[in-house]
Structures are given as C-alpha cells and as structure tokens.
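Weekly modeling sync, notes
Attendees: AB, CL, MP (scribe)

Item 1: holo prediction request
CL wants a bound-state model with 1,3-dihydroxyacetonephosphate before deciding which constructs to order. AB pointed out that an apo prediction alone won't tell us much about the pocket. Agreed to run with the ligand included and paste results into these notes for async review.

Input as submitted:
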Amino acid sequence: MIIAANFKTNKTRAQTRDYMDEVNGFIRSENIKSEIMVFPPLTAFDNFGQGATLGAQNAYAVENGAFTGEIGLDQLKEFGIKTILLGHSERRHILGETQEEISFKFAYFQSLGYQIVYCIGEQLETRKAGKTALMRYIETQLVGIDMEYENLVVAYEPVWAIGTGLVPSNEDIKSIHADLRAKTSRPLLYGGSVKVSNMKEIVEIDNVDGVLVGGASLYAGNFCEMIKIAEEA
Ligand code: 13P
C-alpha cells in the first residue's frame, strides 16, 4: 500500500515540522510497512529523518536558471527529494499546465530516476458522458507518458471528487482501475475525498494499491489513522 498526503497550499514550515514529527514517530513506533509519502509546500522542505518519503508537488524541468517563481533540480537535491507529483488536476485546470508541458516534465524527471506520482482524472461533464468517453479522456492524459516506467505511481483522481466530499461508487472505482491496470503494471492510487471513514472500503477495492489524500491528510492524527487502516486492510 502507498498512502500519500498532498498538502497543496496548506501549512507553514513550522506546522509541517510538527506534522512530520508526529507522522514519522507513528511510522516508526507502529513499524509501518506501507510506503508513506508527504507532499508539503516547497517552503516547508527540510530533513525530517526516517519515516515518510518527502515529495515535491511540482518543479520545473531544469537544474537551475532564469525561471522566476519556479524551483529546479538543485533546490530539490538540497533536501534529497527524489519523488515528484506531476499532472495534478489543479496544475492542469487552475495553473493551465498542458499535456505537452506535463509529459516534458515527466520525461525529464524519469531520465533522473525520480519516483513520479502521475495524476489523471476526468471532470464532471466527462463523467456524465459515460465510461467510454471517460476512458477516452484519460487516454489524452497519458499521451507522452511511459506507463511502464519502473518508478511510476499512477493516481486516479476524478476532478469532481477532489475536495467536494463526493466519491465515485466502489464499482466505478473498480471498473476504472481495472481499465487502468490494463495500461500499466505500476501501483494505482485513488484520490478524491478520501477520509478516515471511507478509507477501508476504498483500499479494499481490486487494483487500488493506495490513496492520495488532500484535505483529510492535513491533521496528522487523521493521516496516522488512515495509515493504520490501510496497513490492516
Ligand atoms: P481531497 O482529498 O481534498 O479531495 O484532495 C485530493 C487530492 O487532490 C490529492 O491530490
């Protein structure tokens, strides 16, 4: 199981430190075997010791240079970061990243051996158009992506389920993950309104190898509870 926390634009450096102390302490004391990842805002990057893998929510595909407002490889390396989230719906739909830009980043970080958590997912109107349309849309998010990259983790996050409290039915998740399984042998995460109360049923769905959690991961106690549920599932 892989259980990942995406803080998005939440938490300060000090808050992240407290969080990581609690979560890493839990991972060690409970002897957690699952892979735990935390994606804090980049201002909170630090060395937190043994426990969760620290990942970047985004970076520019460059070592360093003149790209105002971006960070590159040098800044990731300073904190030993070798895991990156790419293709998140908020970067696609709010920040306007195109598939071309995302696949360029993918190739760059793949060439460096980074662990890539690659996000895909449809918007509500596509969902309403039915499964065939949905999978056709997902295909457009796989253009230029090496689906058998050895350090790839795929996260299926329906946009309409992110931060809304809405979750697809277990049958829908099962069916979409089965189709994704035909496209990759790499771990498949589900994301979108995962919380303590629905964690168990979601991680028990066929071809769900873990979860990517936003809002519900922000409280360390909640996140630890979710880790425990996944570990016991
Ligand atoms: P929520 O868990 O807040 O719905 O967010 C999911 C997400 O976007 C994780 O990347």
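Recorded for review: The pocket of 1,3-dihydroxyacetonephosphate is lined by residues 6, 88, 157, 162-163, 191-194, 212-216 (CB under 6 Å).
Action items: CL to compare against the apo run; MP to circulate these notes.
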